[in-house]
Amino acid sequence: MIDTALKARLKARIKASGPLSVADYMSACLTDPQHGYYTTRTVFGTKGDFITAPEVSQMFGELIGAFCLSAFEQMGSPKTFNLVELGPGRGVLMSDLLRTAKLRPAFLKATQLTLVEVSSKLKEVQRKTLASSGLEPTFVDSFDKVQDGPLIVVANEFFDALPIHQFMKTPSGWMERCIGLDDNEELVFGIGANKLPTSEIPQDISNAPDGTILETQPIANAVAQQIASRIKNQGGAAIFIDYGYLKSAAGETLQALYKHKYDDVLAHPGEADITAHVNFDALSNACKQAGVLPMPPLEQGEFLLRMGLLERAGALGAGKTHEEQEAIRDSVERLAAPEQMGKLFKVLGITATKDPLPPFDLSSRS
Ligand code: SAH
């Protein structure tokens, strides 16, 4: 097998300066300026390695748009606010969201659109997709560069692309998992010298058997905390949608997708999409540390149904051909059915006030 360009460079880097943490590896694979997966690719959707919810159907972005309109109202319809999307991909979600926002001209008039994106190629695609929206996006490469003021933040499948760390239970504690070279100079997982501080080990896994893997996501948590802190101080709301789990647990979720198939994580660095499931418990705690109480997360299926997915599908299908109606029904299934995206994907909503925003409720807010 011929090494990918990035693999050859990573091998040289490991030879020169030692093993990489899983986070450093993931970061190189996804966003290396020269050979990263997102930096070099513009193809998502049916031709890409994975299909995201906005690419499945316009209804997804429209319903997120409806959520943003109620957030805007809850904020007291400010004269200006930042509408921020993290990792907009091809810009499809934002385009569908803004079409829905046309229902409320005051929203569009107040919108300063900011897109947080690292890939120059994707920025170009986003600019093109949004050309007809009438809004000129400002691009920044990290959330902390978003200008001051009230804000509504949207992120779909963004947090799963942020680098995670892995720790493995060993007789000497939870040690950081690293990537080094074996005798044949191939990439291989190993154990590094970094130890997870006892305070960061979830209590119910302290007795896990040796070999158990624990993942941590300090970067995702830090971004969520920054956003929550801005919302607390300057007003607004946020909605994060991603695949992940609600309660902290041990286990490996790091995965690679290459040409629509699961792949060895070490096989095609820079050419496979590498992601990890998002720990929503940890994201919620990060928001709480910023002084904001997030609304209890919903599964994507529940969220979309409560937002009116079926009604929207009915309206969209009215007067269409049988085939078109079948296609709409099919996308409803893909987005909301439990065995498809409905259960695995979770939705976390944050607001500056104590009042919940529909479709979230406070029944289990702790
Ligand atoms: N939200 C889109 C695309 C998801 S893919 C959709 O649902 O279709 C992840 C997106 O996040 C891509 O646009 C990628 O370039 C961007 N991204 C990945 N890591 C990033 C980082 N560290 N900072 C900013 N954007 C990043």
Stated plainly, the CATH topology is called Rossmann fold
Query: Which ions, cofactors or small ligands are bound in this entry?
Result: S-adenosyl-L-homocysteine
The overall strand count is: 16
Number of domains: 1
Number of helices: 14
CATH architecture descriptor text: 3-Layer(aba) Sandwich
**What form results from the Cα inertia axes?**
globular
Q: Assign the structural class, choosing from mainly alpha, mainly beta, alpha/beta, alpha+beta, or little secondary structure.
A: alpha/beta
Rounded mean pLDDT is 94
In N-to-C order, the SSE pattern is HEHHHHEHHEHEEEEEEHEEEEEHEHHHHE
Q: Given this structure, which CATH class is correct? A: Alpha Beta
Low-confidence stretches: none
State Rg: 21 Å
Report how far the terminal alpha carbons are from each other.
Answer: 52 Å
Largest sheet: 8 strands, mixed
What can you see in these coordinates?
By secondary structure, the chain is α/β, with parallel strands linked by helices. It has a single domain, classed as Rossmann fold (3-Layer(aba) Sandwich), CATH 3.40.50. It is 37% helix and 23% strand. Strands 2, 3, 4, 5, 10, 14, 15 and 16 form an 8-stranded mixed sheet that branches. A hairpin with a 2-residue loop joins strand 11 and strand 12. Helix 9 crosses helix 10. The longest helix is centred in the N-terminal third of the chain and has 17 residues. The chain is globular. Bound molecules: S-adenosyl-L-homocysteine. The site of S-adenosyl-L-homocysteine has 21 residues, from helix 2 and helix 4.
